[in-house]
Amino acid sequence: MTPAYQFPPDYYKKSLEVLETSLSLSAYRPWRESDPGPSYPVDARYAALPALTKDDIRAHFPDGFVPPDKDIKKGLESGEINFVQTSGSSSSVRVTNIWNQRWWDASERASWRLNSHTARLATGDQPEAILANARNVGFISDDADLPLEKRRLSRFFYLNEKTDPSRWTPRIMDRMLRELDIFKPAILEANPSLLAKLCRYAAAKPGSVFQPGLITFTYEYPSSLHLRQIRRVFTSPLASSYGTTETGYIFMQCEAGKFHQNTGSCRVDIQPLKKEHGGPDVGRILVTTFDNPWYYMLRFDVGDLGRIDEKQHCPCGRDSGIIIAAIEGRFINATLDCAGRLVTLRRLDESMGGIRDIDEYRLEQSAPGVYNLHLSSQRRDRDRLGREVKEKLRKVYGKDADISIVYEDFLCPEDSGKYCLAKTLFPLKIEDYLDAGRVSW
Ligand SMILES: [Zn+2]
Predict the structure, then answer these.
(1) SS3 string of the chain?
(2) Ligand 1 centroid to 311 CA: how many Å?
C-alpha cells in the first residue's frame, strides 16, 4: 500500500506547473507521448513519464532545459547564472549544469527548517568550516600548503586544499585541528571519510578538539565505520544534508535521524525496486525542482536508493513531504549476492560496521559470487580479522561467496574525490531491478 504522504497546499500546483512547462521544452518533447494528459491526476502523469538521466542532460544542454522567456547568453553575462561541471567518478558521468546561485541559496535555506540545529544555528551569516576534497569545493593546492587567509571565502573556511588525503601529513592535520579552534565554526560541513581520517589522527593524540554546534555530512554516504571514528572525537550533533548540483537540497536529516523532504524546493518520486531486491520500501529517488526559472529538472535520477519510512511518522513532529528512514546508498555502489539479489551499500556497510578497528574498506565484486575486499586496519591479528570479515560477508552474500581480502596501508578516493565503499566491476542496469508494475509517489 502506498503510504499517505502529506504535502504543503501549493505542492500539486507547483508539480503541475513544472510538468507542463517542462513538457514544452525540447529536452522533454519526446516524453509527451507517455503523458496521459491533463484529464489525469498529476501523480499519475508523473508516474507515466521516464526518468531524466545525466546522458539526457548532456544531450540537450543547455537549450533543452531553459524556457524561451529566458536568454541564456544574457543570464551568463549578468552573472545571474553560470555553467558548472560536476565531478563524476569518470569522464563519462561528468555533466555541465546551469547554476543559479539565488535559487540554490533559497533551496538551502528551506532545508534548514528540517533540523532543529540548523534552524537555530544557520542564520545565513554563520561561520562554516568545510572539510571536503579540494576537487569538489574550495581551493586546490597539492604541492604548497595554503595559509589560512587563502582558504577563506565570505563566511566559509576550507580546512583542506589537497585532492588526495594520503598527502595529509601530521603537520597538516595538526593545522586543521588548530584552525577549527581559531575559526570556531557554528557548523562544520564535512565529507565523512575525510573527517573520519582526521578523527583517527586526533583520537590518538592528547588534547581536546573544538566542538562545532553541528556537523553536517555531504558529498558521500556516511559509513558506520566513519561515524564511529568521528564519534571518538566529536560530541556535536550529526546530520546528513542530501542534495545534488542538479536539484539543490532534497532531504535533510532531522535531529531524530530520519530524512525529511525539502518540499518547498522540490518534488520527489520514489520508484520501488522489485520485492526480491528490497522493494517496495526501497526505491530509486527521482527529483523535480520547483521555482528555478533557469533550469527545468523533471524526474531527475539522482542515482541513490532510499528506504521509505513505513509509518511516515517521525518523533520530531515534522510531517510535510516524504519521510525517508534511510538513504541506502548509490545504485552504482550496490552489489549482488550469490543468488543475484541486490545488496545496497547500507546493508553491506551495517555488516562491516560490526567489525572492530577497521579504518577503511572497499568491496569490489568482479563476477557473480566473487568478491575482493580491500581493507585497511591497524589490527595485527589478521587471521582472525579475515575470518570475522568472511563470516560477516557470507551472511550478506551467501555461504558460497568466494571472498578474498587484500590488506592496504590506506585507501585512496576515486577520481571524483569521493571514496568508493563498494561496486561491481560489471555493469548493472537499474531498470532490471525496478518493479515496473508498481507506482509510488
Ligand atoms: Zn524528523
Answers:
(1) CCCCCCCCCCHHHHHHHHHHHHHCCHHHHHHHHHCCCCCCCHHHHHHCCCCECHHHHHHHCCHHHCCCCCCHHHHHHHCCCEEEEECCCCHHHCEEEEECHHHHHHHHHHHHCCCHHHHHHCCCCCCEEEECCCCCCCCCCCCCCCCHHHHEECCEEECCCCCCHHHCCHHHHHHHHHHHHHHCCCEEEECHHHHHHHHHHHHCCCCCCCCCCEEEECCCCCCHHHHHHHHCCCCCCEEEEEEECCCEEEEEECCCCCEEECCCCEEEEEEEECHHHCCCCEEEEEEEECCCCCCCCCCEEEEEEEEECCCCCCCCCCCCCCEEEEEEEEHHHCEECCCCCEECHHHHHHHHCCCCCEEEEEEEEEECCEEEEEEEECCCCHHHHHHHHHHHHHHHHCCCCEEEEEECCCCCCCCCCCCCCEEECCCCCHHHCECCCCCCC
(2) 12
